[in-house]
Write a structure and sequence with these properties.
This protein is of the alpha/beta class and about 140 residues long. It has four helices and four strands, in the order βαβααββα. Helix 1 (about 20-30) links the parallel strand 1 (about 10-15) and strand 2.
């Protein structure tokens, strides 16, 4: 049961939790502040966040250098209102009553910062639109 005062919970999922999902979570945290619960995870997490992604986010004033890829769990999906998949395919469990969005975005894995910037900017626009849909004012 949700009330207008309840904070929406959003989970970003990609395979390695090293690029797209980290950028999505960072933007949602940055723009939504404490008005949104934010998580990210991967179906096969990498050892570290992609350095080009860290650099691209630093260029817009968001430091994700301390983030670590996390394993996708059933509990993370169950406790989220919105699950945003970014190329995790069938590895993401589906539960009734959850809102699922599949954001088709290029994978920044193995690419330099020049290739990551357009992906970063697309994620920012989608996160801003999501906040509007959720009725959450942006803090930045």
């Amino acid at each position: 049961m949700s009330t207008p005062a309840a904070r929406p919970s959003v989970l970003f999922v990609c395979v390695h939790n090293a690029g797209r999902s980290q950028m999505g979570a960072a933007y949602l945290t940055h723009l939504g502040g404490d008005q949104v619960d934010v998580r990210s995870a991967g179906s096969a997490p990498a050892d570290a966040v992609n350095p080009a992604v860290v650099k691209a986010m630093a260029e817009v004033g968001i430091d994700i250098s301390a983030q670590k890829p996390k394993t996708l769990t059933t509990e993370a999906v169950q406790s989220s209102d919105v699950v945003i998949t970014m190329g995790c395919g069938d590895a993401c469990p589906v539960f009734p009553g959850k809102r699922y969005l599949d954001w088709q975005l290029d994978d920044p894995a193995g690419r330099g910062v020049d290739a990551v910037r357009p992906i970063r900017d697309e994620i920012e626009q989608r996160v801003r639109a999501l906040l509007t849909e959720l009725g959450v004012p942006t803090t930045a």
